[in-house]
Write a structure and sequence with these properties.
Elements (H helix, E strand, L loop, with lengths): L1 H6 L17 H16 L1 H5 L3 H27 L6 H19 L3 H25 L4 H21 L1 H4 L5 E2 L13 H21 L2 H11 L1 H6 L4 H27 L1 E2 L6 H15 L6 H15 L7 H15 L4 H16 L26 H25 L1
Antiparallel strand pairs: 1-2
Helix pairs in contact: 2-9, 4-9, 4-12, 4-13, 4-14, 5-6, 5-7, 5-12, 6-12, 9-12, 10-12, 13-14
Amino acid sequence: MSDRLAGGTGTSLIGGAEARASRSLAVLLIPIAAVGAALALVPLWLGESRVLMGVAVLGLAYACYTIGFNVIFGSTGQLFLCVGALAGIGGYGGAILADTVGLPIVVSILVATLAATVMGGLLSFVAVRRSLGVIFTGIVTLIFSLSFDALVLGLSDLTGGDTGRLIKSGADTFLRDKIPPYYLMLTLVLVFLLVHGLLRRSHVGWAFRALRDDEVAAELAGVDVARYRVYAALLGAAMLGLAGSTYAFTEGRISPTTYGFGEVDVVVVVMLAFGGIGTLFGPIVGAVTFTIVDEVLIEFGQLRQVAYGILIIVLFLRMPRGVIPTVASLWRRVRGRGGPSTPLRAGSGAAKSTPLGGASPPLRSEDLRQAADSAAGKLEAVSGEAQSAE
């Protein structure tokens, strides 16, 4: 419990692990800016090919989806298996409002995003009110996802059914150019990262971590579990709806496979698990890695899915916690080995060296008293930090 309370006072961005860190905004902005600068160079290599630029835009869309899912699942442990459905509400809703109703593109995107936000909040509210666990929340949201797929096929007059729907709005704008859509989606990725990063460093982020780690302990600490879970679902669903709607207008055509469960949800879960669940930059690592891997394996033809599955199994066996937590753990281990050893003071209660093959010296009463005083001091510090965080 004390570890959780102490972890709520800061966030280490190098691995997404909760630990004490500087609250300077630069600690958050510099890594995000570095990610943006690196991804902004992609059109220099792929800008000559419209097909490859389309793949890059799709990869950024998946990064947006994974960040939204990370806010919901990685922050509060709500297994929403309706990522594609919430993104589809934004995509289909924006297209229908713009083409059929005649609303401006920006207004259509905002209204469709609002609809996805409300639906995500409603699903979370139902799960909280019914006290559904992770598995049952996943089942309920999976049923909603399958229902959405059936609804898309049933309302073929509006959605285009199996063949999909062409989006006329925005056809004569920069949304259909070769390179501008990439930077538009990249802007969304960076904004989502910034929002998530600021959230993790706030009081709301502390509450998210508390209820994710131990719901009972969070309630005892005064965290309103139901309210904060709905908050996470609202924010994550808003990200999914906005990303899905924006991608629809840049693509110009949407179909059931654009937001299908197998094409979106499964891929997003794999990307997040690979990058690191609950980490800030895990979605970026997962999206970039599997977008590249997917293109490389396209040459395998019918064996593509087999090779894809084998690669995923190997990667997860080697790094079961994800890339970022594994790299962060290795980095801490290397720093621990290379760091200077702490000198022992004479007369202190620290352990002293023993001769080879000898037994450890018996503990003295002075050692026990010093250990008890140290533990009491740490407990008072943790209690003070928890009160200041609240």
